[in-house]
Amino acid sequence: ITGGANPSAYNRQQFVAWETAILRAQMDVEDTFAEIAKQCTPDQHSVLLCDRGTMDVLAYVGHDTFAEILEENNWTIPQLRDKRYNAVIHLVSAAIGAEEYYSLENNKAR
Questions:
Q1: What span, in angstroms and rounded, lies between the C-alpha atoms of 30 and 32?
Q2: What's the pTM value of the predicted model, to 2 decimals?
Q3: Measured over all CA atoms, what is the biggest interatomic distance in the chain, rounded to whole angstroms?
Q4: CA-CA to 83 of 20 to 30 Å: which in 9, 34, 52, 64?
Q5: What pLDDT is recorded for position 91?
Q6: Span 87-103, mean pLDDT?
Q7: In the predicted structure, residue 108 carries a pLDDT above the cut 70
Q8: Nearby residues of 20 by Cβ (< 8 Å), 6 or more positions away
Q9: How far apart (Å, rounded) are the C-alpha atoms in residues 35 and 73?
Protein backbone atom coordinates (compact mmCIF):
# COMPACT_ATOMS: atom_id res chain seq x y z
CA ILE A 1 0.00 0.00 0.00
CA THR A 2 2.86 2.41 0.74
CA GLY A 3 5.06 1.30 -2.13
CA GLY A 4 7.81 0.20 0.23
CA ALA A 5 7.81 3.44 2.22
CA ASN A 6 7.60 3.31 6.01
CA PRO A 7 5.94 6.56 7.14
CA SER A 8 5.72 5.34 10.74
CA ALA A 9 9.52 5.53 10.88
CA TYR A 10 9.71 9.07 9.48
CA ASN A 11 10.60 12.13 11.49
CA ARG A 12 7.98 14.87 11.62
CA GLN A 13 9.31 16.75 8.58
CA GLN A 14 9.43 13.57 6.48
CA PHE A 15 5.95 12.55 7.67
CA VAL A 16 4.45 15.94 6.75
CA ALA A 17 6.14 15.73 3.33
CA TRP A 18 4.77 12.18 2.86
CA GLU A 19 1.21 13.15 3.72
CA THR A 20 1.43 16.28 1.57
CA ALA A 21 2.53 14.11 -1.36
CA ILE A 22 -0.40 11.75 -0.74
CA LEU A 23 -2.79 14.70 -0.71
CA ARG A 24 -1.34 16.16 -3.92
CA ALA A 25 -1.60 12.75 -5.61
CA GLN A 26 -5.24 12.48 -4.53
CA MET A 27 -6.00 15.88 -6.05
CA ASP A 28 -4.11 15.04 -9.26
CA VAL A 29 -6.10 11.82 -9.72
CA GLU A 30 -9.40 13.59 -9.03
CA ASP A 31 -8.52 16.44 -11.40
CA THR A 32 -7.49 14.00 -14.14
CA PHE A 33 -10.75 12.07 -13.96
CA ALA A 34 -12.75 15.32 -13.81
CA GLU A 35 -11.12 16.38 -17.08
CA ILE A 36 -11.95 13.02 -18.63
CA ALA A 37 -15.58 13.38 -17.50
CA LYS A 38 -15.77 16.84 -19.10
CA GLN A 39 -15.05 15.23 -22.47
CA CYS A 40 -18.47 13.61 -22.50
CA THR A 41 -20.75 14.79 -25.26
CA PRO A 42 -23.93 16.71 -24.36
CA ASP A 43 -26.05 13.57 -24.74
CA GLN A 44 -23.84 11.65 -22.31
CA HIS A 45 -23.80 11.98 -18.56
CA SER A 46 -20.94 11.44 -16.19
CA VAL A 47 -20.66 11.05 -12.45
CA LEU A 48 -17.32 11.04 -10.72
CA LEU A 49 -17.25 9.06 -7.48
CA CYS A 50 -14.21 9.16 -5.22
CA ASP A 51 -13.75 6.43 -2.64
CA ARG A 52 -11.52 8.77 -0.66
CA GLY A 53 -11.23 12.51 -0.72
CA THR A 54 -8.82 15.25 0.20
CA MET A 55 -10.05 15.35 3.78
CA ASP A 56 -9.07 11.70 4.23
CA VAL A 57 -5.54 12.76 5.22
CA LEU A 58 -6.96 14.39 8.35
CA ALA A 59 -8.00 10.99 9.68
CA TYR A 60 -4.39 9.78 9.50
CA VAL A 61 -2.46 12.82 10.73
CA GLY A 62 -4.68 14.59 13.26
CA HIS A 63 -5.70 18.23 13.44
CA ASP A 64 -2.30 19.78 14.26
CA THR A 65 -0.40 18.11 11.44
CA PHE A 66 -3.27 18.71 9.03
CA ALA A 67 -3.26 22.41 9.94
CA GLU A 68 0.49 22.45 9.25
CA ILE A 69 -0.02 20.85 5.83
CA LEU A 70 -2.73 23.39 5.01
CA GLU A 71 -0.59 26.33 6.07
CA GLU A 72 2.53 25.16 4.22
CA ASN A 73 0.54 24.84 0.99
CA ASN A 74 -1.76 27.84 1.38
CA TRP A 75 -4.78 25.54 1.38
CA THR A 76 -7.95 25.84 3.42
CA ILE A 77 -10.52 23.27 4.44
CA PRO A 78 -13.19 24.94 2.27
CA GLN A 79 -10.83 24.69 -0.74
CA LEU A 80 -10.14 21.01 -0.14
CA ARG A 81 -13.65 19.98 0.77
CA ASP A 82 -16.38 22.42 -0.24
CA LYS A 83 -14.96 23.67 -3.54
CA ARG A 84 -13.75 20.33 -4.86
CA TYR A 85 -16.91 18.28 -4.41
CA ASN A 86 -20.57 18.78 -5.26
CA ALA A 87 -21.59 16.34 -2.54
CA VAL A 88 -19.97 14.36 0.23
CA ILE A 89 -21.51 11.12 1.44
CA HIS A 90 -20.24 9.75 4.73
CA LEU A 91 -20.71 6.01 4.99
CA VAL A 92 -20.53 4.16 8.28
CA SER A 93 -18.70 0.85 8.47
CA ALA A 94 -20.73 -2.33 8.65
CA ALA A 95 -18.23 -3.42 11.29
CA ILE A 96 -19.70 -1.07 13.88
CA GLY A 97 -21.57 -3.30 16.27
CA ALA A 98 -20.20 -6.44 14.62
CA GLU A 99 -16.54 -6.22 15.59
CA GLU A 100 -16.35 -9.93 16.41
CA TYR A 101 -16.74 -10.68 12.68
CA TYR A 102 -13.76 -8.55 11.62
CA SER A 103 -10.12 -9.30 12.19
CA LEU A 104 -6.73 -7.71 11.68
CA GLU A 105 -5.26 -11.17 11.15
CA ASN A 106 -6.13 -11.47 7.45
CA ASN A 107 -4.96 -8.07 6.19
CA LYS A 108 -1.38 -6.87 6.73
CA ALA A 109 -2.33 -3.30 5.79
CA ARG A 110 -4.58 -2.98 8.83
A1: 5
A2: 0.77
A3: 52
A4: 64
A5: 81
A6: 80
A7: no
A8: 69, 72, 73
A9: 23
